[in-house]
User: What shape does this take?
Amino acid sequence: MKPENDLERYGLDTQCVLAGRDPHANHGFINTPIVRGSTVLFETVEKLQSGKQSYVYATKGTPTVRALEEAWTQISGAAGTVLAPSGLAAIGLALQAFTKAGDHVLVVDSIYRPARNFCEGILKKYGVEIEYFDPLAPLEAIERLFRPNTSVVFLEAPGSQSFEVCDVPGIASLARRHGAISLLDNTWATPILFPPHERGVDVAIEAGTKYLGGHSDLLLGLISANAATFPALRQTFDMWAIPPGPEDAFLAMRGLRTMPLRLREAEKRALDMAHWFQSRPEVSRILHPAFPDCPGHEIWKRDFLGSSGLFSIILKPASKAAVAAMLDGLKLFGMGFSWAGFESLVTPFDCASYRTVTQWKPEGPALRFQIGLEDMDDLKRDLDEGFQRLRATG
Ligand SMILES: *Cc1c(COP(=O)(O)O)cnc(C)c1O
Assistant: This one.
């Protein structure tokens, strides 16, 4: 086997198998090893001063971290990637790289809530004005929000609780026309289901904690950028010096090999479960981009190559106690944040507590589901018993 430098000619599954490794540079071992370290030695004064040695200090890169950066650049169709120790750290780093005091930033109202907290708690403190907009607003209305000092438009599609799909390519091209950078949280779709840069996005964030890791055992963030934006991103990263640990980068690379396979299975299971929910009398609506009544479904069909394993449902009106009785007694669905691991999860949520420009008034309680790799029949039985508790409590 020869080191493969030209991965472009292969499909994405093959690229996920080959990217970021070079067995014959590692004594024939298939995987790039975990390299721990801080100091990197130089043999001569000349090498130390030349700035040309591949590695200079571990905050700026190790073989483990760089292999993952290169692999992600390949999979994302980007010019370059930097890594961060969590998805949220990646969001903060990217926002900081492209904003300064006096700027105006447009943020989709359905953005991941902790990202909103970063905008409110940190960007505002440094003199950046934040304005939210409706993910489903027509492009003309969104275009009117741009100002001469708009530096970033921050998107997420679909919203990771409510699943509206905004027009990412349309908004990214508005941003370009108005001299702003488009930034996308692409965690739900990953580059496998939504190739961000091909769709016109400048900078894309992935919480590697989710599908890339895939086993609920690591935290990681990745930021891929096109050629125009990568230098500024890298410069900000170098000033911060917050790389992930080498074990986490290694585990993420291990996850990459099976990510397309796991995504296909996640899609199948989530759709199966969403259709099952649709047949239940306790359920009012399904919020899943592949369902025709999900807001933004047509855009999803146009832009995405599939759906992943996370979606929500709206129950028919039920008391808090009834929902608690249903969820507290579940045996296979854990309650907790994060998702995209091998195990099933459920969380109750209420977008009304933080959104500012869109209404969130569902007819009943809202639940978000991550469907894991348990037997589907076992999962449905667990939920069926949950629905019985819901009905019994009233
Ligand atoms: C989980 C998540 C993040 C943050 O990732 P962490 O690694 O948990 O910080 C960002 N965006 C979305 C959509 C997420 O689901």
Observations:
- The first strand starts at residue 80 and ends at 84.
